[in-house]
């Protein structure tokens, strides 16, 4: 939460592109939308604020983020249209299928892209859309990148391989946004900077030293590891019936 204080969208996507993606994903004015791995609920809150007839459900495993989402929804007057659940995304069972299902920057909750597509599809109404954002390799990763991300080269694919995987699962990409380097940089500078500023302005807090250490570790991993190598794509999917 501290790291995302100045960039509440927990993915390298700027506000203009968030708006564009949501506008394409949610067409009907009375849509019901599900966000799996919603964090503090920023995507849903922005959508519901723009569309008074829309309802939403957010699911996240972090008690503090869910509570923050609940407080924010109440302050914005959206609490009557936004239901929040604090549990693992894989454990959620829908009472009402959604017209659109989001999972952007939270595919780790399912264990990867393939599992995310399959898991989100279980909650989707017929004819609905899914908005899924995940990493991909902009270029083959070197050892420094793999160490920084603590992963293997097989954990992600290139952009073509990412789209191909989705298609093999029976879905078509009807739109997508590939995050630019500027979007990545803005996201990462905000992530590390917000955490650093909090630590420096709260030097007496018991977590201040840990926050500084984590910000420095993350910044090094980014600048000396995956910057320019790990990409991010947010795909709008429809079933290939």
From TrEMBL:
CDD domains: AdoMet_MTases. The keyword Cytoplasm does not apply. GO terms for biological process: methylation. The keyword Transferase applies. Keywords: Methyltransferase, Transferase. InterPro entries: CFA/CMAS (IPR050723), Methyltransf_25 (IPR041698), SAM-dependent_MTases_sf (IPR029063). Residues 33-128 form the Methyltransferase domain. One of its GO terms (molecular function) is methyltransferase activity. It comes from the Bacteria. PANTHER family: CYCLOPROPANE-FATTY-ACYL-PHOSPHOLIPID SYNTHASE, FATTY ACID C-METHYL TRANSFERASE. This is Methyltransferase type 12. It comes from Kutzneria albida DSM 43870.
């Amino acid at each position: 939460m501290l790291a995302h204080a100045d960039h509440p969208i927990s993915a390298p996507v700027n506000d203009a592109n968030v708006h564009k993606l949501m506008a394409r994903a949610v067409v009907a004015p009375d849509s019901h939308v599900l966000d799996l791995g919603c964090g503090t609920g920023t995507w849903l809150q922005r959508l519901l604020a723009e569309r008074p007839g829309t309802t939403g459900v957010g699911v996240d495993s972090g008690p503090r983020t869910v509570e923050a989402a609940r407080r924010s929804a109440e302050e914005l007057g959206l609490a009557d249209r936004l239901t929040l659940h604090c549990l693992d995304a894989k454990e959620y069972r829908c009472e009402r299928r959604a017209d659109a299902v989001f999972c952007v920057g939270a595919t780790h909750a399912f264990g990867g892209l393939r599992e995310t597509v399959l898991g989100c599809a279980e909650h989707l109404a017929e004819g609905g859309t899914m908005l899924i954002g995940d990493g991909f390799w902009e270029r083959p990763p070197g050892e420094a990148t793999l160490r920084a991300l603590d992963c293997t080269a097989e954990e992600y694919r290139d952009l073509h391989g990412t789209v191909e995987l989705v298609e093999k699962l029976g879905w078509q990409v009807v739109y997508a946004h590939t995050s630019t380097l500027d979007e990545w940089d803005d996201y990462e500078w905000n992530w590390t900077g917000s955490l650093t500023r909090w630590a420096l302005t709260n030097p007496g807090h018991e977590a201040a030293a840990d926050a500084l250490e984590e910000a420095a570790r993350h910044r090094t991993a980014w600048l000396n590891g995956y910057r320019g190598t790990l990409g991010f794509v947010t795909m709008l999917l429809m079933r290939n019936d």
